[in-house]
Design the sequence.
């Protein structure tokens, strides 16, 4: 860097306060070193290909090399799961690094749509607004299952009590999860038994079809028979009222969304301008008639904290306060929206708060924000960093040589850059040594 005398070597003590491109060069007080007045070293205005340690000392960044080729995006990993995921050449792929980088195709997906992920108990749920599924132990599985069609019912010889009966079906998969029920069918029995024939074909992921029937003139459905392959069953009086009660009537499988978040035992799914959520601990079931939130614009942020959810869209960032999704209050926390997909989670201890994980995102006003519990937001960069407006981004937490860094990639106008920070400039106009402005 320039020194007071060209022949001198100036040894800096480091930039202990890090990078700041908002501070004016004329605002800081100068220091005297070796009898020469030089600028102070607390702030650094620009750093290219170097990191700053906790003490402010520069550290050269390591280089990079190409590991695989092809159109690749939506790279994801989790510290508790021993593989990563990405979309490469129109396929969802598993990424492992045991013996070098190995990318294993799992399933075809829409090539150009960004993929969202959320991990729940070592199971990864994914969606892009069209495709959806789960990854269990590194292999793709279904997420949800279509509801059966209405069964064909009839009457045969038997000993049922006279009355009106209702019949409904459900599918159950190989993991033992039961999904949404069919629309019920009503049948009046004067004497005899009920025959039930489920429609075909069954989904490939269905292990069995459960038949639920109400007792005469009742509204409670009980499990009566289970079919492991297509066929017909007969329901007699000895089958009635003994099995478990039907719990999935009027439930549907989740739709795919472009953002996923996990909060208080449910997966929340953003799909265009709507956020809906699964049943507690039953991630393949939703209540379409009740479990939805509607917003005026497409949702660009969906992030969970200890006691609520941050939701961001064009013109506003809001906080949905409350643990019960049917009893929440919406609080406006910022008058501007987030940069789409520019969000990650960091450990709360790094911000001095008790939350295990804190969502951090970029706002369209060029400020990085942390979303704390109770709808309290903390602006992390407003007084230090000027970032121009961007349309899309990505963020991740990176740890290296004792440093923890939030790495951001922001895209503006079709361009991609490593950060996109720009300097703020102070200018003086002088003529004949007289300041004019």
Sequence:
């Amino acid at each position: 860097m320039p020194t007071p005398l060209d022949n001198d070597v100036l040894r800096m003590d480091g930039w202990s306060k890090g990078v700041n491109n908002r501070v004016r060069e004329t605002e800081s007080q100068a220091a005297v070193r070796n009898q020469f007045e030089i600028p102070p070293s607390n702030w650094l205005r620009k750093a290219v290909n170097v990191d700053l340690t906790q003490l402010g000392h520069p550290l050269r960044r390591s280089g990079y090399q190409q590991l695989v080729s092809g159109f690749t995006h939506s790279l994801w990993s989790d510290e508790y799961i021993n593989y990563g995921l990405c979309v490469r050449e129109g396929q969802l792929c598993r990424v492992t690094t045991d013996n070098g980088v190995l990318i294993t195709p799992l399933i075809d997906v829409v090539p150009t749509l960004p993929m969202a992920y959320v991990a729940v108990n070592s199971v990864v749920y994914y969606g892009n607004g069209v495709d959806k599924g789960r990854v269990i132990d590194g292999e793709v599985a279904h997420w949800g299952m279509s509801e059966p069609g209405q069964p064909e019912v009839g009457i045969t010889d038997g000993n049922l009590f006279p009355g009106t009966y209702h019949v409904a079906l459900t599918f159950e998969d190989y993991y033992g999860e039961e999904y949404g029920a069919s629309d019920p069918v009503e049948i009046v029995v004067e004497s005899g038994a009920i025959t039930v024939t489920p429609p075909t074909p069954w989904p490939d992921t269905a292990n069995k079809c459960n038949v639920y029937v109400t007792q005469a003139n009742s509204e409670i459905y009980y499990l009566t028979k289970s079919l492991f392959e297509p066929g017909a069953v007969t329901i007699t009086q000895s089958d009635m009222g003994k099995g478990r009660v039907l719990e999935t009537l009027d439930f549907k499988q989740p739709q795919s969304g472009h953002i996923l978040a996990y909060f208080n035992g449910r997966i929340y799914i953003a799909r265009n301008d709507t956020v809906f959520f699964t049943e507690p601990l039953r991630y393949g079931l939703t209540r379409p008639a009740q479990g939805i939130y509607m917003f005026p614009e497409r949702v660009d942020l969906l992030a969970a904290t200890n006691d609520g959810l941050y939701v961001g869209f064009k013109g506003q960032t809001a906080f949905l306060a409350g643990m019960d999704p049917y009893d929440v209050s919406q609080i406006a926390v910022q008058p501007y929206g987030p940069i789409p997909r520019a969000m990650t989670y960091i450990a709360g201890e790094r911000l001095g708060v008790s939350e295990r994980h804190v969502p951090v995102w970029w706002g369209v006003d060029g400020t990085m924000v942390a979303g704390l519990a109770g709808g309290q937001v903390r602006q992390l960069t407003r007084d230090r960093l000027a970032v121009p407006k961007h349309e899309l981004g990505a963020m991740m937490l990176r740890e290296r040589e004792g440093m923890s860094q939030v790495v951001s990639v922001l895209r503006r106008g079709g361009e991609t850059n490593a950060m996109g920070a720009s300097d703020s400039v102070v200018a003086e106009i002088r003529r004949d040594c007289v300041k004019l402005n």
